[in-house]
Amino acid sequence: MKVAITGKGGVGKTTLAALLAQAWAREGAKVLAIDVDPVASLAGALGFADPQNITPLSQMNELVEERTGAKPGTMGQMFKLNPTVDDLPEKIAHEHNGVKLIVMGGIKEGGGGCVCPESALVKALVRHIILQRDEHVIMDMEAGVEHLGRSTADSVNVMVVVVEPGMRSIRAAQQIKKLATQIGIKNIKAVGNKIRDVEDKKFITDNLKDIKVIGFLPFTSEIIDADKQGALEIKNSQISETIKSIKNSL
Q1: Rounded to 5 degrees, what are φ and ψ at 215?
Q2: Domain count along the chain
Q3: What are phi and psi of 11, to 5 degrees?
Q4: pLDDT tens digit string along 65-118?
Q5: For the ranges 163-167, 202-206, 234-238, which has the lowest average pLDDT?
Q6: Three-class SS of residue 95?
Q7: Burial of 30 (0-12, 13-18, 19+ CB in 10 A)
Q8: Burial of 24 (0-12, 13-18, 19+ CB in 10 A)
Q9: Residue 30 belongs to what domain range?
Q10: Selection from 162, 164, 157, 140 nearest residue 18 by Cα
Q11: What is the CATH number for 135?
């Protein structure tokens, strides 16, 4: 399975990505979690020790220069757009409780992005992981589809948009679906999060008529408290069953 998880900022993308990765790992599956959100927080949610000390790929300057032939931060250079990345998952991945993690990192340039060596390396590795790796791959995306080009979109089995009860979240989900469809992602599902009651469920399903909702995560103090502790170790049977149901739907 190759799953990309996205949605408006703050809706719970990382929570869902971590819970799904942990659920697959408990079953003995090979799991590779990819954090491509510029505000990387998946390592903490998965319970990695000292997640702040994990260096994102985009900040590994020596490795970027080695693979692309260009020094990050220097303007006007020629560099490889398709650098060698086959060995990088084993080289840079961290592992905890059966989940391997790669933190890609954001591209910190003005204008919302760049054509630069670190960007080329990140995109090449995402492409390699989606097209050629045989693990369950779970990508914690930023709010959009920027890391998925047309060459990789066909190999993403499903894009899951996390939605909370609110029109801004609904509109973001609709925009993400539009962008994803334009690059060839056909299988798009939604998961409702921070659900308090049946009215919240109805609000989401009524406003997402063109996106199938495959599960709802409750607004619960356990997730809030776990997030404060830094790692999601959920013991609530309702949440566990919901995650299992979402996983099986995928």
Answers
A1: 170, 160
A2: 1
A3: -85, -15
A4: 999 999 987 777 899 989 999 999 999 999 999 999 999 986 554 334 466 898
A5: 234-238
A6: strand
A7: middle
A8: buried
A9: 2-249
A10: 140
A11: 3.40.50.300
